[in-house]
Amino acid sequence: MAATGVTGSSPAAGSPEGAPLAVELRGITKRFPGVVANRDIELRVRRGEVHAIVGENGAGKSTLMKTLYGMHRPDEGSILLDGREVHFRSPADAIAAGIGMVHQHFMLADNFTVLENIVLGSEPTKGGRLDLAEGRRRIRDISARYALDLDPDELVENLGVGDRQRVEIAKVLYRGATTLILDEPTAVLVPQEVDELFGNLAELKREGLTVIFISHKLDEVRKVADSITVIRRGTTVGEADPKTTTARQLAEMMVGSELPSPETRTSTVRDVVVLELRGVTVATPGGRPAVDDVDLTIREGEVLGIAGVEGNGQAELVDAIMGLRPLTAGTVLFGDQDISSWSTRDRREAGFGFIPEDRHRQGMLLEGTLWENRILGHQTRPPASKGWFIDRKASRSDTARIMKDYDVRAPGPDTLAVALSGGNQQKLIVGREMESGPRLLVAAHPTRGVDVGAQAAIWELLKDARAEGMAILLISADLDELIGLSDTLRVMLRGRLVATLDPGTCTPEQLGGHMTGAHGTAGAA
Amino acid sequence: MSVVRRLGPALLAPVLAVVVALVISSAVMAALAVNPFDVFGVMLDFGETPGQQITAMVVIVNRAIPLFLSGLAVAVAFRMGLFNIGVEGQYRLATIVAAAAGAAVTLPGPLHIGFIVLVAVVVAALWAGIVAVLKVTRGVSEVISSIMMNFIALGIASYLLTGPFRGSPEGASIIATADIPESGQMPGLNGIFDLFGLANPPRQLYGFLLIAIVVGVLIAVLLNRTRFGFDLKASGMSPSAASASGVNARAMVIKTMLLSGAVAGLIGLPDLLGNTHSYTTDFTAGLGFLGIAVALLGRNKPFGIALAALLFAFLDRSLVPLQIADYPSSVVTIVQGTIVLAVVVANEIARRVARRSAAGGTAAPSGGPTAGDGSTGAVPTPPPPGSTDQRQGAQL
After folding, report:
1. For residues A46 and A49, what is the distance between their CA atoms, to the nearest angstrom?
2. B390 found inside a domain
3. B37 exposed, middle or buried (CB, 10 Å; 0-12, 13-18, 19+)?
4. Is the pLDDT of residue B92 over 50?
């Protein structure tokens, strides 16, 4: 851990034009068996700029950043820092070379203070003893220098998401990073926090630090970046100047063609009610209900979209519908049956399909094979089982069929799920849920982390299923997807359904306003 | 060839672990100024005559049977990420109750044996069930409660032996339950030696071997081929994904612990039915703890557990010859201990290697390590009802 020697206080301030690039990647290729994750990547990041890397989910941004952060080695190509070629064997090497990574998912210990979290792993010592005073001094220093506004002695569990992110940033600055990689930093933030983050980035830039900003949100990228590199299907397709490029042009660079549209045409909503929630309330241990008195109805052939900033009770609502979380109050009706007390398995067997929001947590057995994942959630029905026994042969052949029909790219049904990219995992999940022919599909972020082609395919599948009379509860953070697919749009804020919008007439801006409560919607307690 | 390729990676870790353990043990012996090769020579010496050699093998197999059952009991729970450390108490309590019950009744042959087996299975399953109920209702870690239950079980067993179940006369040097009548004793399998024209050893090969094999096959089928086995495996790999797939996590904990306990109930029976016919103060102890090591070494697979049980039985058998040859018998304990440590390390290394090669996109061979090897450290607990989400918190 040599990185502790140099503090973040001596970035090469104000490199003149023509100086070596802070980061340069030449011809980086990274192959995984069967898949080329990155191909001939060219990236040139000047010192002291905010450089955005944009691309669809699954385009290869994460693989590239892992390469730069030393988490794996490229098969071809070279990495140059300040004009010198480097070879990282581990993230420790990258940190020593002044590269810091702020992960999308924070890695903080809740029951530690800001100070303890930051120094963890590179503790300052004096005579062999922990020197927290020195750590506190340096953190105050960093906080003041970059306007991070951190109190070293605050407990992390008391901090909001934006504060936590600043702790993560302070963590890498403390280790002497001069180049910061921010992986989808705005995904977890509400708009105000995004603005604060951008303010912080400006401070970092002013102090001469380099920021690599990964995102797929084009408006944000155009607002904050000095230059943009676009990645598509694993390779860099070009650089763009945020001042002269429109969001539309960027999007087309990302996608490489006309943007697919999630739009549905004619309404296929029928009269038969499939799912009805009456006064559904789900409590959290903290006391405030996560889902508060929710009423909703989904009919055959209807897509009901739920919009909302993440963390406003959508996940709890999904869990309640799937029987994974007990109701504090209210009833769930499936058809005309009260299923409030049914188990998840009962619901699954009755015709609930489920595409979970976090596929690694709820959708997949990562260390299991693909055929085991194919039958997960369907293990009580053919082709997965015959009576009490698992029908391995039928499961394997059906898995092979789904892999073919849904374009899941993997060597075979006995491949471990962990070997697949997120998009392929998602296609397997969508395939297995669709193949069981559910009456109700609970789809939480069904196209998250999949490439554009798969996204369009999943949209098609949802549209077809809707036309055939499937009822679909769609939860998504992608407003275009919500507006395009839904027959009815409800907005969820602080556990309540606060607005009902017509997807035919509302715009993403209006929807965004309702999601943050800016429209002053009645009911937001 | 394909078998070697398929089993190769699975065998690599345990074999490596055993080799490492032998090297470390040799180093320890050398440090104690004992020639390790002489010691290994004694351990491998099964005697001069064919009769002696077969006797040695019978001793090993007889010892391996309860170790196999114990390993199986532990492995069933391991597979879903549950640590049943309470196998020791479960089998000791089951054995004494079964011994007393078996002595108290007289039934025609097979029925009598069946009755004893049933009592043992039920008692051990119920005892293990307490741990499961504590876990699902109160969230008590099964590691803690099953260890604690061991002490209680041993206490109850001593009380029963010296009190209500005492069958030996006052003042006898060894306190025992009353002998199980002949109809409840299980005949040996020595007939097979005559069948193959081998010397019939003075020791009886336990008839319980057949039951153990059947149980092993049943458990293997149950774990690998049934819906229950799939649910169990899924729960071990990812409790949250299993729940979302419709597995009732609480019911699964209870069922698995009952099954684990039921198998644990069989551990004492080979000795009880085939040899001692009563539970005594010096009835074989420690099998439950050895079972944890056996399950680890066997990677929670019934066939692997059988091999591991034979290895441990072989090591155990050498205790007496070593003492006779005036070598420290603790050598055996050292070897067993280092095997366990080496296995834990080797399993973890193998798991990481497999996972890395899989994450890199290579199709790792099926039958690669699964979670719930027991070697991965973390003690998974099913989420309590209404647990908060892992995502970064809700705003406002």
Report:
1. 6
2. no
3. exposed
4. yes
Longest dimension (CA), chain A: 77
Predicted confidence pLDDT, tens digits, chain A (525 residues) = 333 333 333 334 344 445 678 899 998 888 875 567 788 888 999 988 999 998 766 677 878 888 888 888 888 889 999 888 999 888 888 988 999 998 877 788 888 899 988 888 888 888 888 888 888 998 998 888 888 888 888 888 888 778 888 898 898 899 888 999 998 888 767 767 788 888 888 888 888 899 998 887 777 888 889 999 988 878 888 888 888 887 777 777 776 655 556 665 677 788 888 999 999 999 877 667 888 899 999 999 999 999 887 778 888 999 999 999 889 999 999 988 899 999 999 999 999 999 998 888 899 998 899 999 999 989 888 888 888 899 989 999 999 999 998 888 888 898 888 888 777 888 899 999 999 889 999 999 898 777 667 788 888 889 889 888 999 999 987 778 888 889 899 999 888 898 888 888 887 777 777 877 766 444 333
Whether the ω angle into residue A383 lies within 30 degrees of 0, i.e. cis, is: yes
Residue A73 sits at the vertex; the CA angle it makes with A68 and A78, to the nearest 5 degrees, is: 65
Domains along the sequence of chain A with CATH: 46-73+88-255 (3.40.50.300), 260-351+438-525 (3.40.50.300), 361-436 (no CATH)
Widest CA span in chain B: 83
DSSP B303: H
**Tokens found for residue A433:** 């849920």
Q: Give the structural domain span for B212.
A: 2-359
Pairing of strands A179-183, A210-215: parallel
What does pTM read for this prediction?
A: 0.73
Query: Which residues of chain A have a CB within 8 Å of the CB of B237?
Result: 365-368
- Check CB contact of B275 with chain A, cutoff 8 Å: no
* Nearest residue, CB atoms, B368 vs list A347, A363, A416: A416
User: What is the pLDDT at residue B43?
Assistant: 84
Determine, for residues B385 and A33 on separate chains, whether the beta-carbon distance falls below 8 Å: no
Question: What SS3 state is found at A39?
Answer: strand
Hey, is the C-beta of B138 within 8 angstroms of any chain A C-beta? Answer: no
* Count of the separate structural domains present in chain B: 1
Q: A325 vs B385: CB contact, 8 Å cut-off?
A: yes
The whole-angstrom separation of Cα A179 and Cα A86 is 14
Q: Render the burial of A498-523: b for 16+ CB within 10 Å, e for the rest.
A: bbebebeebeeebbbbbbbbebebee
Q: Which of B231, B248, B386 sits opposite A285 (nearest CB)?
A: B386
**Contact flag A390-B240 (C-beta cutoff 8 Å):** no
Interface touch A366/B395, C-beta < 8 Å: no
Kindly list the residues from chain B whose CB atom is less than 8 angstroms away from the CB atom of residue A348.
Answer: 245-246
Contact between chains at B364 and A310 (C-beta distance less than 8 A): no
Instruction: Name the amino acid, one letter, at A426.
Output: Q
The number of beta carbons lying within 10 Å of the beta carbon of residue A127 is 5
- Nearest CB partner across the interface for B364, out of A164, A365, A416: A416
Q: How far is B307 from chain A (nearest CA, A)?
A: 25
What is the reported pLDDT for B5?
A: 53
| Chain B residues with beta carbon closer than 8 angstroms to that of A103 | none
Task: Inspect the interface and report whether the beta carbons of B361 and A309 lie closer than 8 Å.
Answer: no
Q: For residue A328, how far is the Cα from the chain centroid?
A: 29
Q: How far is A210 from A139, CA to CA, in rounded Å? A: 20
Report chain B residues whose CB lies below 8 A from the CB of A33: 360-363
Q: What is the CATH number of the domain that holds B184?
A: 1.10.3470
- Tell me if B381 is assigned to some domain: no
Alpha-carbon A373 to chain mean position: 22
State which H helix or E strand residue A51 sits in. Answer: strand A50-54
Q: Residue A390 and residue B229: Cβ atoms within 8 Å?
A: yes
Q: B16: distance to nearest CA of chain A, Å?
A: 23
Q: In terms of CA atoms, which chain B residue is nearest residue A322?
A: B244
